[in-house]
Write a structure and sequence with these properties.
This protein is an alpha+beta fold. The chain has 5 helices and 6 strands, in the order H-H-H-H-H-E-E-E-E-E-E. It folds into 2 domains: about 30 residues, no CATH class; about 120 residues, no CATH class.
Length: about 170
């Protein structure tokens, strides 16, 4: 029993006298007190899987207009709104300030509209408890540029299908 107790202690020859040094456990102490595994640390705010879950859900056609700012809808066709909505969904789960470019083409592959979606602020919880993020939506079409900033909130529309739709931030 005494040998077991002494095996957990460090030998007197290895004891450090400096107050700044770290005392290492003896043989049995090292077996019993295994250090924890390294933890990966990422800097910055929540992004990616923390906000979207294991993967970004496919945006259903019925949900496209719930992502695009009301003032921008009149300028865009459905296909253009869908491209902007997809870019906004991607921006919502990215780091603050990350810009996602988008473009829309017609049947002959000619550019009809384009723009960007940018997460302009950190993720926050609304007064209703939803996880939300402000996204700035920019469009350029026929030489005209328009933009709007919308609060997109993480919304489960069916079992396992999550979209970032315009929500009430308060």
């Amino acid at each position: 029993m005494t040998a077991f107790a002494l095996g957990a202690c460090e030998s007197a020859d290895n004891i450090k006298t400096s107050a700044d040094s770290f005392y290492h456990p003896g043989l049995i102490g090292r077996v019993l007190d295994v250090p924890p595994p390294a933890v990966p640390v990422s800097s910055g705010e929540p992004a990616g899987a923390l906000l979207a879950g294991p993967g970004l859900s496919e945006l259903p056609d019925a949900s496209v207009d719930s992502v695009v700012a009301p003032g921008l809808k009149a300028w865009l066709t459905f296909a253009e709104r869908k491209d902007l909505a997809l870019a906004s969904e991607e921006a919502a789960i990215g780091k603050t300030g990350r810009t996602v470019d988008w473009q829309s083409h017609d049947g002959s592959h000619a550019l009809t509209a384009g723009g960007t979606a940018t997460a302009v602020d950190d993720v926050y919880r609304s007064l209703r408890g939803d996880v939300c993020r402000d996204v700035r939506q920019n469009i350029t079409k026929m030489g005209d540029s328009h933009f709007a900033t919308v609060p997109l909130c993480r919304t489960e529309i069916s079992a396992g299908v999550v979209v970032w739709a315009i929500g009430a931030a308060n």
